[in-house]
Amino acid sequence: MKRISYRLFLRLVKVYMDLRQRFFLSLYLNRRKANLAKADLSFLDLRGANLGGANLQGANLIRTDLSGAKLNNADLSRAHLADAVVTVVQLRQAKSLHGAILPDGQIYDGQFDSQLISAKLSGIAGDGAVEMPLRDLRGRNLRGAILHNANLFKANLSGVDLSEADLNGAILYGANLSRAILRGADLRGADLLTANLRDADLRHADLEGALVTEQQLASTAYLEGATVPSVWIHP
After folding, report:
1. 119: burial class by Cβ within 10 Å (0-12, 13-18, 19+)?
2. Which domains does the chain have, with CATH numbers?
3. Global pTM?
């Protein structure tokens, strides 16, 4: 009886915390996002929050969980993001990172790709994220591989079977994916800018929120049944 009561208590606590989180996001954060300059949002769980266009100049985001949060056109200049959980894809969409302290403690100096992608940033990559930048992975069988938030910056994946692979949020900037098999792959939020997709098989792949151009997708061999981004990136 005591065990059942304890489990019920834990469930009630979880429900309470979930409701509190939703209340905070919908009634406070989303309504005040235009005026969050220098706000203390450290250690908060902001997963999935809509911070698009938010004024976060000088905001304290130390160890804030921003997984899945929308940061498009957000002003993060001089924000403190030390140990924050956030991806390169998210930060690339921000309006400004001028003077911001990045998850690894570096001060952003304007050299986005060299500073964020090639560096191993624990907060940006996420716990357990695969780090394989500049690797030659030709000949590998990565069918169904879990590569969530993986750093595959300029990796050579030409002809690689990535069917049904989890590439959600992966960094594939400049990667060679020519003739790669990506049938049914999860590419939501992936950074595919400047990636070579010539003759790639993207049938039934999910590219919602991915950073990719129409020209890149036009070069693929197959695109039937794929979910393409609702917002296109223009080169």
Report:
1. middle
2. 32-125 (2.160.20.80), 128-235 (2.160.20.80)
3. 0.49
